[in-house]
Amino acid sequence: MRKGIHPEYHPVVFRDRAADYAFLTRSTMTSEKTVEWEDGNTYPVVDVEISDVSHPFYTGTARVLDTAGRVERFERRYGKQG
Question: Coiled-coil annotation: which residues (predicted)?
Answer without folding.
Answer: none
